[in-house]
Amino acid sequence: xxxxxxxxxxxxxxxxxxxxxxxxxxxxxxxxxxxxxxxxxxxxxxxxxxxxxxxxxxxxxxxxxxxxxxxxxxxxxxxxxxxxxxxxxxxxxxxxxxxxxxxxxxxxxxxxxxxxxxxxxxxxxxxxxxxxxxxxxxxxxxxxxxxxxxxxxxxxxxxxxxxxxxxxxxxxxxxxxxxxxxxxxxxxxxxxxxxxxxxxxxxxxxxxxxxxxxxxxxxxxxxxxxxxxxxxxxxxxxxxxxxxxxxxxxxxxxxxxxxxxxxxxxxxxxxxxxxxxxxxxxxxxxxxxxxxxxxxxxxxxxxxxxxxxxxxxxxxxxxxxxxxxxxxxxxxxxxxxxxxxxxxxxxxxxxxxxxxxxxxxxxxxxxxxxxxxxxxxxxxxxxxxxxxxxxxxxxxxxxxxxxxxxxxxxxxxxxxxxxx
Length: 420
Fold this sequence. Notes:
Number of domains: 2
Structural class: alpha/beta
Order of helices and strands: EHEHEHHEHEHEHEEHEHEHEHEEHHH
Radius of gyration: 23 Å
Distance between the termini: 42 Å
Number of helices: 14
């Protein structure tokens, strides 16, 4: 497994998905990990986190990698893009690339799982046999609504031109990955369509997000119906789609909600808040920012409903799955639940502005409606986003890799057989 960071302890959606995939492969045999950043992600850890870390550490071998710094000049950025590394794909250092090639080509691995397209730099140089073993978990499709969030806003014509060219190169790079490597994973049918269109490649598989080690019903949660008007926003506060959605909600939706419910509170919980998040939370009445908390359960207990005000992004939202299993209704934009098999008014309540949010929230004043939303959301998560669903999906991927590898090995052997 090749990952941005060592995914323990599981403090984010990215880490949860990484560990879910790792646990699947660990059920097949020993698994090693090559990672880019420090062991512990996040700055605050729960009491006993070290013990949990040791208990959950399933990796047999660990290898630390480095990438080259991304060029600061526009010329340098354009140069690496046309050389085959469109942003955000970056080159590994020479030592790390040599280590990776040595491990992949001679490490005896049956499968090589790469988390994120951006970590595949240089992999086209692998042998044909090795490339057949590579599974790329694309996760977020970067060439659609997420693309603009990769960059800071600019009016510079040259920078805008570079970003346009880079997007074309990134789309081409993405297509090469789908056609060259053994398999590619996405989180939803929507992402599969965005990635490949109607002519979906047989090597592209939907592997939905599932929750981590916390099992349904593991924590007793009292109904939130009688809670005061407390909303919960939860997510990484340095991830641009979360930041943009939260700022939009605070500026365009929350003031109207506070006018209707003057005692309302919004709990904003997440890792690594950007300065603009801290500033807007500080100056907005009725907002509490709780950064880098060791456990989010307290905040679910304190809230009446969970909001997902996303306007961009891809994948499936682990925060929606978690809220469903912790007995809190979800009020979301359409984008916030995109990729999940849920229906507005059945599993969640949809909004797109201040009035529609207040109208959605008012429906929660009926206890039967509140309880029904919670129950139906939990049921759909248990049915379609369970660990067994992930295992079934990944079994298809592994079977496909095995078949194609065997097929390729047979062709290779015949082509190198001595003439009769």
